[in-house]
Amino acid sequence: MLVNAAGMLKAAKAGHYGIAAFNTNDLEWTRSILTAAEETQAPVIIQCTAGAAKWQKGFKVVADVVRDLVDSMNITVPVAMHLDHGSYEDCFKCIDAGFTSIMYDGSHEADFNVNVEHTKELVKLAHQKGLSIEAEVGGIGGTEDGVTAQGELADPDECAAIAELGVDFLACGIGNIHGPYPANWAGLNFDQLAAIQAKTGDLPLVLHGGSGIPKEQVLKAVSLGVAKININTELQLSFHKATRAFIESGKDLEGKNYDPRKLLKPGFDAIVETAEGLIKDFGADGKGWDF
Ligand code: 13P
Q1: Which of 9, 63, 252, 286 has the largest CB neighbor count within 10 A?
Q2: Closest C-alpha to ligand 1, atom 5
Q3: How far apart are CA 263 and CA 246, in angstroms?
Q4: What is the pLDDT of residues 113-150, one digit of tens each?
């Protein structure tokens, strides 16, 4: 069933587990994520960037695919359809397209006051329409869809100012990076996370760049208030690895394995397996209707 993400994240924060928020790239990606969520009986967030939505020919296509698959696959666990790193304009488009949750990423605005003003307006609109809303303070490192930030650490006072606007969950930089982590990565900054949690209370916090962070660090972050863990690269890497292995083994040349349903199946099976493993690592399995 499609829901907004507020209730599941509140329950996750209270219950000290993390909800996986997986980025989707196409219909099969969405189907694989839904399969993993249903098999583990976990609430899940399917999210999409503007770039991935452009690839799929628009936010409405993405939302309609999620909605229709939830129906046709008889998905019983709660599923939220969320915009990832949206601009101010993207948020309006996703509200119209039928998303159940939006993220306004005002962390790149030159002036913090612009982040505050836009977030305030979008909180009001999202809540009027029954959607949940995520905001962001402090750029996250790495590059995603051409947007680069230097992995700055979020200022706890700025986090408190955005939290007060009534957002449902908040992304805050704590040394995390999108994409693979470099060998010399310093790890998550737990002092910063603790300082942010101290100023934002019960508000569920969001860990972007969740791919490749050692499990102990993710679980420590969860113990300090993180309730949503964003994963994109890790599913892409497992799809790539399995697809490459299939082709390198020469199996693609056997029988009718040129059929995309056969050629791409190992990759999509790998997404299901990786997603199930992460859901279990975060402790969300069996938490389908914990709220
Ligand atoms: P990764 O690609 O590093 O998993 O990050 C995903 C993310 O944070 C989406 O917002």
Answers
A1: 9
A2: 209
A3: 8
A4: 999 999 999 999 999 999 999 999 975 555 555 554 45
90 is catalytic: no
134 lines ligand 1 (CB under 6 A): no
Find the catalytic residue in 84, 105, 155, 290. 84
Q: Tokens for 182?
A: 């470099």
- Give residue limits of the domains in the chain: 6-281
Half-sphere exposure of 163 (CA within 13 A, CB side): 21
CA triple 192-199-142, angle to 5 deg: 40
Residue 187 or residue 95, greater confidence: 95
Residue 229 tokens read as: 């863990």
pTM assigned to the model: 0.95
* Alpha-carbon dihedral 183, 219, 171, 195, rounded to 10 degrees: -100
Closest ligand 1 atom to Cα of 211: 4
Q: Is CATH 3.20.20.70 correct for 6-281?
A: yes
Determine the distance separating the centroid of ligand 1 and the alpha carbon of 122, expressed in angstroms: 23
Q: Ligand 1 pocket, 139 CB below 6 A?
A: no
| Structure token digits, residue 110 | 């030159």
Helix axes 265-281, 233-248, angle to 10 degrees: 140
